[in-house]
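User: Small ask, check this?
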Amino acid sequence: MADFKDYERYDALGLGELIAARKVKVEEVLEAAIERIETHNPKINAVIHKMYDAAREQMRGGLPNGPLAGVPYLLKDLTILCKGHPTLNGSNLFEGFVADHDSTLTERLRAAGLLLLGKTNTPEFGLNAATEPVAFGSTRNPWNLDLGSGGSSGGAAAAVAARMVPAAHASDGGGSIRIPASCCGVFGLKPTRGRNPVGPALGEGWSGMSTGHAVSLSVRDSAALLDATHGPAPGDPYCAPAPRRPFQDEVGAKPEKLRIAFSTKAPLDISVHESCQAAVQDVARLCQDLGHEVEEAAPEFEARGLVDAFRVIVGANLSHVIALRMRALKRGSIDGLVERASLHWAEFGRRASATDYVRSVQAIHIVGRRFGAFFRKYDALLTPTVAGPPPPLRTINMMSEEATAFWGKLFRFIPFTPQFNASGGPAMSLPLYWTADGLPIGVQFGADFGNEALLFRLAAQLEAARPWRNRRPAMLGESAATPPPAPEPARAGLGSRGSKKP
């Protein structure tokens, strides 16, 4: 039997394999996760609602067969519902709200045998690239406790980086999986629009820009989780193209020679930190060494129009959510219940006309057309994930600034992620580069609509070439042992083979 001081050595599939082989008991795995949450959470504030007894009850009720059965998992406390537990959306406005049913995604996670043992911190309504809500306080970055964890899935990414769980639920409406994955040094993939369901109460999030999935220690965990959750639910308004085979089969499959475009230039001439530019240049060379064709290029689209569309779509959705909650509470005044930036953004959305909303939806569809044409020529696009290293806490503050100043800071930090929310295509952040002072810098790869398979093959190849799981935040202390290697994907031969030097 494994000594479950070794819990942190394993990714989710690794834990599942130990449980299936009866080398460790499910109870030991669950209690090891709880122990780590209790030990590390006071330092970083990643988990804001604990469901330990519910997870124990779920375990005692029996688990299905499957690669993830018995693996501890955390849900992001935004939109997704778990019957009998609060969904507070990072806001005092939702104090007292307890779900009376599971979201479809929750049902599928349970059906995979994942043990749901808590909910993670998120900025109010998921609006920020920093996880610092007034209602629950700041989530700190495990790599440096004076820095932020990113957002809006900052609690999820910090929990995974701190080895509380090997993977955690996350969602992404403007980069909210990829941003904290970059800040916290973990893997994060935003799936294609319609790949995972958002029902039963909703048909889509933020006009299709928002989708849910996970952050994880390993690429193969992300693939296994997507296998467990993807596919349409009854009544869904649309769905992503069905995959040709399980996503797990892509991890380890021999990657074809890809034509990869790269760019370090941000839309709207936003300044990009030299470390983020260096990360892209470094990974472009790595891709070239792995046999891919690499050249500098990027899609052309109306970036200012996308920013304006994002503001209208999110504002209109936010205004609607707040109005529904106020009616449920039978309150006429919102004073003291929401943060300043949320209040201004909701008011902006309330003032927008139906024509503004239709124009905004059309604007994001135009971005999708431009990206679709771009991916006729290229297989993948490599950029920085964000425009800078993890920022200090309270750099992007929803309480101290009105909407225009807040939007300016927000979009200057995340100029590269929202376009894939607009296009609907999949995109991922990989922790392949680190600053001299030990901070993670993610790089983003995006692909054509429906092509997660290509991203999983490429990600697995890059993970094998430059593993990241042996890197641990100093707050965890020394590792008991080196993580066991995942099955190594087949790799392309070396050499540029005529590709342009990055």
Observations:
- Residues 7-476 form a domain with the Amidase signature (AS) enzymes fold (CATH 3.90.1300.10).
- The radius of gyration is 21 Å.
- Residues 484-501 have pLDDT under 50 and may be disordered.
- The chain has 14 helices and 13 strands.
